[in-house]
Amino acid sequence: MKATLWVTRYDARPCREDIASRTGMTMIELAALSEHGAHESAVVNVAPLLRIKKLVKRYGPKTVLHGVDLDIPAGRVVALIGASGSGKSTLLRCVNYLEVPEPGSEIWLDGELIGQDARSTPPRLLQGAALRRQRSQIGMVFQHFNLFPNLTALENITEAPLAHRRATKAEARMQAQALLDQVGLHDKAASYPSQLSGGQQQRVAIARALAMKPRLMLFDEVTSALDPELVDEVLKVMLQLAQDGMTMVVVTHEMAFAAEVADRVVYMDQGRIIEDGPPGSILRNPRHPRTQAFLKRMLRTG
Amino acid sequence: MHLNFSVWLTRWPYLLQGAAISLEIVVIVLLLSTPLAMIAALGLGATNRAILYPMMAISWILRGIPPLVILFVAYFVVPQFGISLTPLVAAIAGFTAYNTLVVAELIVAGFRSVDPGQHAAIAALGLPPFRAYRRVLLPQALPSIIPPYISYSTDMVKGTALAGSIGVLELVTRANQVILATNRPFEILLGIAALYGIVDAGLMGLQAAAERLWAPHARR
Amino acid sequence: MLTSCVKWAPLAALLAFAGGAEAQSAATATGPQVSIDLPKPWPLRHLVATGTLTIATTGKSAGVTFVDESGKLAGARIDLWTKLADDLGIKPDFVVIDWPGVLPGLAANRFDIACEGASWTKARLASPDFYMTRPLEVAINVGVALKSSGIATWSDAAGKRLGGVKGEQELKDLLAKAGAKTASLELPGVPEARLALLNGQYDVYGTGMQVAQTLLKGEDGDKFMILGEPTAVDASGFCVNKNEGDLAQAVNVLLAKYSVDGTMASINKKWDMPDTTANLAKLGY
């Protein structure tokens, strides 16, 4: 039984009120747009699911992100590439406020300001339950899996839904089993992380992130810590996820995966976005010399 | 030198009572200081400096002073402020104060030994703090807390001898009295060494059991 | 065993004098019957615990204050304190605590009365931390050595390693007698001091006559000897809480009474302690 429980959610076509609330447009403006022949789903694409505005991050005197702007429409897969230290992982961690950006930076998810209280001026940092609720809408998968070693694969997956009271114990277990089936680990429910291979652990970690039915998934170099022969099983799960319509931001060194799966490739260097476009043009015909150098290096080593 | 253990025939009830008092001190102090240490550990692990710095100062002072001095303060100085404690209560209070901070530091170190990635995962999933501690952090910190905790408790069993200096008739004090009355130091000392050995062996058995209980994922 | 020690002339004389004095004091007890009317219970207003005489004792002095086979405190001072509490109309409560804790505890208002017999010294008599009662006994402090050490006189003891119980006047007297500035070994109590001496970890143990005699009578006693001349002969009494002038007064009155009515003599006799009444008389007590 292949679970598509969560697929329907973010594939649903939004109604006009919904679009209005997401874009901040008035109903009159929307009606006008509609009269000009714009389809509602196109309007939604105007207002992206994830909007990153003027994102600045500093560690002490060192600025690692220099006012990055990035919009990602719903259902898109964006591959974030760049040399280590380019700020791509930091950018990812700022999206769900694992790293707190500098004041003035804004992260919007589906019309909601993340990590800050939009009602106060200047916006105060969100804490506690409000921040936890926002984070639960963003799934994150880490380079080193970060599974809870004291819990079984199944318990790792049910932990968040139970903590957020999203499901009863029985429902959570059923959903977790469905997710395990989906990532190809139907027989590993009772296994502890230490009993699983790296690729299996990473697939459990993806299932764990999906259990909260997130609107957005963040992947932070999820295959870099894996033995080469285990990379494909993880990429396959991610490909399936992309085909099912999940919005994904993928920090990766897997150029082949970026070329095949991503709708867009964003190249970052020294805390700035240097190039942004379809994988075909970025990966095959990079315009910026630094992108060219980076890709040359990647092709040589990768 | 010929050993003659017949002194134990008449003196054993008195000495065993001393062992019971020593054990009583250890048990009560552990029961009191362990929950207190958990609270103190929250202070020592706090990010708020208004909590962290005073806690660090208290910890530094209490752990830096010899336990004997803390006992003297509990028994001789505290009464100056109108609270008069019996020797046993003063000893328990003094040991508890010292032990709380020692165990708190053990707990803080145990939690620090948990992989930072676990905190990232907890934050990313939006797990509430109390649940995260109970389900994820505590079970992972315990295996590194329990062994030094038991080893420290074993030290404490021996440390109770200090209570004799403020008038608690614990095992060593009684042994000294019996040595004085009988002039059979070696027989008495060997006997009480055996008593301490039994108590410590019990604690070490507890440690082994605790390690099995708290580390199901590490067993494999 | 005292008389068997040849080099003991001055001490023997002291004791002989003490023995003779018993008859003498009995002889002077003639003339009109004098009696005093003592309050009972004594209205003591500053006791540490109401209705209780809180007594600190080391429980580590054979014959004086020690733990008997049944685990109870016993000894000459325990009897005397019990009698005192009884005559004061209150209950005795013994706190067993090592000597280093005794005077600090008294100063800290933990005890009403303490010291099984603290030597009268300038410093103690003038101490702001406690009162000293009238003397109970004349304390003879001596040096004890192993027979095998070859130390027989104080001239033999010159340059030898001296030791005793930390903080005791007996140790200070030994150092003064031998002209030494510091002890080579200070131990926490009598049993430790005895063992260390037996082990040859130091050479001369400065202690009280009573303790020395117990060592000679006990296990391995034949290995010890008492040096021929005392290190000091002084008076010793109890220490009383500085807040309790009324108690000090009451104890002084009762101790005077006990020395004339035979209570003191009978307790000392029961525990095989020397009677020093006559020597006390030399000090006017």
Q: What would you say this structure looks like, in words?
A:
The complex is a heterotrimer of chains A (302), B (220) and C (285). In chain A, helix 7 packs parallel to helix 9 (198-210), helix 8 crosses helix 9 (198-210) and helix 9 (198-210) packs parallel to helix 10 (228-243). In chain A, strand 4 and strand 5 form a beta hairpin. Residues 1-13 of chain A have low confidence and may be disordered. Chain A is α/β, with parallel strands linked by helices and 302 residues long. Chain A contains 13 helices and twelve strands. The longest helix of chain A has 16 residues, at 228-243. Chain B has one domain (7-218): MetI-like (MetI-like fold), CATH 1.10.3720.10. Helix content of chain B is 79%, strand content 0%. In chain B, helix 1 (7-44) runs antiparallel to helix 7 (171-182), helix 1 runs parallel beside helix 8 and helix 3 (67-77) packs across helix 4 (87-112). The longest helix of chain B has 38 residues, at 7-44. The N and C termini of chain B lie far apart (53 Å). With 285 residues, chain C is of the alpha/beta class. Chain C folds into two domains: 52-138 and 236-282, 3-Layer(aba) Sandwich (D-Maltodextrin-Binding Protein, domain 2); 139-233, 3-Layer(aba) Sandwich (D-Maltodextrin-Binding Protein, domain 2), CATH 3.40.190.10. Helix content of chain C is 37%, strand content 21%. In chain C, strands 1, 4, 5, 6, 7, 8, 9, 10, 11 and 12 form a ten-stranded mixed β-sheet that branches. In chain C, strands 2-3 form a two-stranded antiparallel ribbon. In chain C, strand 8, helix 5 (169-178) and strand 9 (185-187) form a beta-alpha-beta unit. The radius of gyration of chain C is 19 Å and the shape is globular. The B-C interface holds B 10-11, 13-14, 17, 72, 75-77, 79-80, 84, 87, 164-167, 169, 173-174, 176-185 and C 48, 56, 59-62, 66-71, 95-98, 100-101, 104-105, 107-110, 189-191, 194-195, 218-220. Chain B: It is a multi-pass membrane protein. Chain B: Belongs to the binding-protein-dependent transport system permease family. HisMQ subfamily. Chain B: The chain crosses the membrane at residues 20-45, 57-78, 84-108. Chain B: Keywords: Amino-acid transport, Cell membrane, Membrane, Transmembrane, Transmembrane helix, Transport. Chain B: InterPro entries: AA_ABC_transptr_permease_3TM, ArtM/GltK/GlnP/TcyL/YhdX-like, MetI-like, MetI-like_sf.
